[in-house]
Amino acid sequence: MSTQDLPTPSVPVGTRPEPGRLVFEAPRRGKPPRHLADLNPAERKSALTEAGLPGFRATQLSKHYFGRLVDDPADWTDVPAAQRESLHAALFPRLMTAVREITCDGGTTRKTLWRLHDGAMVESVLMRYPDRVTMCVSSQAGCGMNCPFCATGQAGLTRNLSAAEIVEQVVAGARELARGEVPGGPGRVSNVVFMGMGEPLANYNAVLGAVRRLTDPAPDGLGLSQRHLTVSTVGLVPAIEKLTAERLNLTLAVSLHAPDDDLRDELVPVNTRWRIGEVLGAAWEYARTTKRRVSIEYALIRDINDQAWRADLLGKRLRGKLAHVNLIPLNPTPGSKWTASRPQDQDAFARVLEAYGVPVTVRDTRGREIDGACGQLAAATA
């Protein structure tokens, strides 16, 4: 199967796919209009030239969008007033509109629900810490991975996002920070995690395009460090291999959630296509090639995957590897049978991993009171 924009396995909600029988198809709604953030610098110039506008304006527009974070063409003071509207129409269509924003942690954690141009809904989260600001972004509207404990997975897949729709989530957060709208004074986005709605590697081309825009030096992009970007996956092995070949300095996060294939088949249905051994093998090759430590994401679910023997099996799989385990207290979906592990079981699980010499941390549970887990706000609003 080609890894060129790997489509997402479409699995009816509430069913378990037969091993090896996942059906790959990506639902499509209206194609997002072309935006400056979809294009590299050469493509931006060509787009303006094709529209009968001066190509050299592309650099000016890039400075305004990525550098100054300006969203009003009236502020393009270095562009002739007569050209502003036509330039804006050519490269800055409205991609998304904020439907709702809720905050917690004194306003330093802010979750936004966006309506895209075709009515699809996605979420992004801004989290401000004393030493950094992290944006968690969506790469798809919905998700086709069908993980039963995940609100987004149970909603199904609507469509892939464009590169610009992904970038615009980060730029919107950067604008709030730059304008002093987030408590703590003016600031900058420092980290981006592709851990919102969707399976990032099932939308490979758009995600990679967004990575380029976010890390390209100013004025062509936001100028973030590749080392401060994390791309997660449930384990699409061909796409992991393709990402490895890019030789970028991104952090790869593997959403494992179980150390044994029997349970992972239930929790992460794509495991029936690529088994744990294959997924971790691809992850270790990524680590070997990039020298970047792989993050193993493990949502602790009470009495499901938090037993001591499973911690022992996970420790055996990971010992001696360039890996770090991120234990995630499950943020339960309302009405779901899945819930977070008991604190004592969480602590015992971590101690077993530490005994194997595996670095482990427990993820900060920010956002629990604002439907912080991906997909919860969209589901509640719908």
From TrEMBL:
The EC number(s) this enzyme carries: 2.1.1.192
Question: What does the entry's cofactor note say about binding and number?
Answer: Binds 1 [4Fe-4S] cluster. The cluster is coordinated with 3 cysteines and an exchangeable S-adenosyl-L-methionine.
Q: Name one GO biological process term.
A: tRNA methylation
Identify the stretch(es) annotated as Disordered: 1-38
The record's section on Pfam families has: Radical_SAM (PF04055)
Localization: Cytoplasm
* Reactions the enzyme catalyzes: adenosine(2503) in 23S rRNA + 2 reduced [2Fe-2S]-[ferredoxin] + 2 S-adenosyl-L-methionine = 2-methyladenosine(2503) in 23S rRNA + 5'-deoxyadenosine + L-methionine + 2 oxidized [2Fe-2S]-[ferredoxin] + S-adenosyl-L-homocysteine; adenosine(37) in tRNA + 2 reduced [2Fe-2S]-[ferredoxin] + 2 S-adenosyl-L-methionine = 2-methyladenosine(37) in tRNA + 5'-deoxyadenosine + L-methionine + 2 oxidized [2Fe-2S]-[ferredoxin] + S-adenosyl-L-homocysteine
Q: Which InterPro entries match?
A: Aldolase_TIM, Methyltransferase_A, RNA_MTrfase_RlmN, rRNA_lsu_MTrfase_RlmN/Cfr, rSAM, rSAM_sf
Catalytic residues? 123, 374
Keyword Transcription in record: no
Molecular-function annotations in GO: 4 iron, 4 sulfur cluster binding; metal ion binding; rRNA (adenine(2503)-C2-)-methyltransferase activity; rRNA binding; tRNA (adenine(37)-C2)-methyltransferase activity; tRNA binding
- Show the Gene3D superfamilies listed in the entry: 1.10.150.530, Aldolase class I
Q: Which UniProt keywords apply?
A: 4Fe-4S, Cytoplasm, Disulfide bond, Iron, Iron-sulfur, Metal-binding, Methyltransferase, rRNA processing, S-adenosyl-L-methionine, Transferase, tRNA processing
Q: Domain Radical SAM core: where?
A: 129-369
| Protein residues bound to S-adenosyl-L-methionine | 198-199, 232, 255-257, 331
Query: Listed GO cellular component terms?
Result: cytoplasm
Q: What cofactor does its activity depend on?
A: [4Fe-4S] cluster
| Amino-acid positions noted as binding [4Fe-4S] cluster in the UniProt annotation, renumbered to this chain | 143, 147, 150
> What is the purpose of this protein?
Specifically methylates position 2 of adenine 2503 in 23S rRNA and position 2 of adenine 37 in tRNAs.
Family in the record: Belongs to the radical SAM superfamily. RlmN family.
Further remark:
Reaction proceeds by a ping-pong mechanism involving intermediate methylation of a conserved cysteine residue.
NCBIfam families linked to this entry? rRNA_mod_RlmN
Name of the featured protein: Probable dual-specificity RNA methyltransferase RlmN
